[in-house]
Amino acid sequence: MTDWIVVVDDDTTNLKMAGHILSKSKKRVTAMKSGQMLLDYVRSNEPDLILLDVRMPEMDGFEALKRLRELEKELGRKELPVIFLTADDDPQVMERAKEMGVADFIKKPFEPSDFVERIDRVIGEKHRADDDQPMMASVPSFPVSHVEDDQPLNLAILNAILEQRDASDSALQLDREAFLHVYRFVTRYLIRYRKKACKLFLSLTPIGEQSEAQFAANCDRFCAYVKAALRKSDLVMQYQSNQVFVFLTDIREDAVTQVIGHILRSWNQKNADLISVSYEVEFMHSDEMKRGTDEVPWIVVVDDDISNLKLAGHVLSKNNMRVTALKSGKALLELLKDSRPNLILLDVKMPEMDGFETKAKLMEMEEDVAGIPVVFLTANDDMESEKKGLELGAEDFVRKPFVPEILMMRVSRILEMVRLQKNLSREVDKKTKENKNLFLHVVRSLADAIDAKDSYTNGHSGRVAEYSREIARRYGYDEQEQSDIYMMGLLHDVGKIGIRDEVINKPGRLTDEEYEEIKSHPVVGYRILSNIKEMPSLATGARWHHERYDGKGYPDGLAGEKIPEAARIIAVADAYDAMTSYRSYRGVIPQDKVKQEILKCSGTQFDPKFANIMVSMMDEDAGYDLREKR
User: Fold this and answer.
1) How do 104-107 and 235-240 pair as beta strands?
2) Rounded to whole angstroms, how far apart are CA atoms 297 and 299?
3) Pairing between β-strand 243-249 and β-strand 275-284 as defined by DSSP bridges
4) What residues make up the domain containing 206?
5) CATH of the domain at 371
6) Helix ranges (DSSP H) in 458-564
7) How far apart are CA 14 and CA 18, in angstroms?
8) What angle separates helix 565-579 from helix 460-475, to the nearest 10 degrees?
9) What is the dihedral of CA 270, 272, 274, 275, to 10 degrees?
10) For the segment 504-548, what is each residue's pLDDT rounded down to a tens digit?
11) Domains contained in the chain, number
C-alpha cells in the first residue's frame, strides 16, 4: 500500500521540493498552504502522516496541531503522526513540540535521503501500532536501570535497549544505585582529561492546593522536562519525588547560569502555577573532584631519543610524578586532543616536526591546551634558539644530558608556579563574582526603589531588563553584552527618582507642565548614571530609551542608527511592558493588539529589526505569559 503524506507549508517552493522528493520515493502526496486547509481536509480523509510547517501566518504549526488533536478527539479517531518542518534551532520550540507529541523534526532546506528516511521511520512505527504489534518485538519498555535480576535478558534485548538510548537527544536518567556507579565513572573520566563539571540540586514545592498524587505527578513531569532539556552527556537522578539531582558534564562555568536559566525560564513560562523550583549549584574543577587525594603531577616528555625518554621518565617517576613518553610532536598533538597534562618537556631537535613548530601548533589549539606550560629540552647553547623558544612562550630550557637534580628543581619550580597562578586566578574570579553580585544586588534594589514610586509599575524595570536581554541574545549579543544591557534595562527609569510622586501617580490627564517634568527623567537618569565611571554604558539606556527611530522622540531627537543600539532595544522592551501591564485607567492590552501596535510602529517608533524580534518572542508566547502577573 502506498504511503499517503500531507505536506502543509505556506512556502510554495518547500511544497514543490517535498512533493518532488516524496513522489520519487513512490509516495502519495497532498500539498496545502495553511493549517485551516489541513483541518478541513482531515475531517473526511485519513493520511498516514502530516508534515507541518511551524512558522505560518494566521495559524502556526502549534495552533494547527492543537486543533487537529481536538478534531481527532471529536471524531473518535486515533492521532495521526505529525512531523514538524522548521528552519529554527530554537530549543524552546523543540521542547514545546515534544510536549505536544510531535513525532520528529525535519530541518529546512530538506536533505533528500534524510528526509525520506525520517518519514519512513515514523510511518513504520504507525503501521506497527495499527497492527497492534510492539515497536520492538520482545523488547521490554523499561530502561536498563529498571531491569530486575529475574527479568529474562538476552543480547537482542540489550542491543535494542542500547539502540533506543543512542537515538535519544536527552540526558541519561538513572535510579540511585545506577547513578552512583555512573557518576563515579564519569568523575574519573573528567579528572583524567581535566574537564569541568557542575552539580545542580533542584528542590520542588507545590503551589496552591494539590493532593499528594497531583504533586508527585507534577514532580515527575518536571524531572522528565529537565531530562529532555539537557544533553546526552548529562546525568539526571530523581532522588526523592520532589528532589532532582543533575550532573552537567564537561561544561564551562560561564555556561552553567545559561543552562539553569533556560531550564527555569522555559518551565515557568508554561507551568509557573504548578510548582516552585529552588536550586543549589556547585561548579567543579577537575582538581576539586579529587578531594581527599593528592594530585599526582602528569608530565609528558617528547624526544626522538629513547635514552633521553628513559632517563627523564626514571627521574620524574622516582619523584612521584606520572610520566608519558612520546617520540614526536605529531604524537603529542594527537594526545592533547583528549588529555591535559600539567607540564610538557619538549625536545627542540626532532625530525619531521621540531620543537618550535610543535609549540607553535600548540598555541593555535584550545585555550586550555595552549596554556599548558612547556619546557624545551636542548643539547645546544645557541642563544638564538633560546630567544626563539621564549618568544613562543616556553617557561624554561633544560640542557641535555640531564642532571637529575636540576631537572627536578626546574620541573618542581614550574609546577609550583602554575599551582600558585591557578589559586590566584580562582581567588580573583571569586572576588570578581562577589563584586558583580554585590553590584547587581545594589542595582536591583535601586530598580525596585524606582518602581516603588509608581504604584502601577510594580516590577516594570525587572521585566524590561529581561525582555531587553532576550532581544539582545536573539540578535547575537555575547554573554557580557547581554549582562550589560540587562543592567541598562534595570536602570533605564532611574531618573524618575527626581520626579514628584504626585506627578508620577496622578490618575488623570497630565498638564503640559507635568508632562514636561515627566519628559525630564531621561536627562536626570543620565546625570545620575554618568557618575558610575566603571560602567559608562549604564547611562545609555537611561538617556535615549524614549528616542524614536523616526527622530520624533526625546530628549535629543536622535533618529535611526544615531540612537545607540542598546537604547533601541530597550525602547521596544519598554513599550511592550507598558502595553502588557496594568494601569489605573485600563487592564492589560490583549496580545494580538500589542503585536499589531508594535508592527505598526516598526520603522517609526522602533528599529524594525528589534521590533521583529519582539514580535517573534510574542509568537512563541502562546499563553501570554511574558506580561505582568497579578
Assistant:
1) unpaired
2) 6
3) unpaired
4) 164-290
5) 3.40.50.2300
6) 460-475, 479-490, 501-504, 512-519, 521-529, 538-544
7) 6
8) 130
9) 130
10) 777 778 888 988 998 999 999 899 888 887 788 889 999 999 999
11) 4
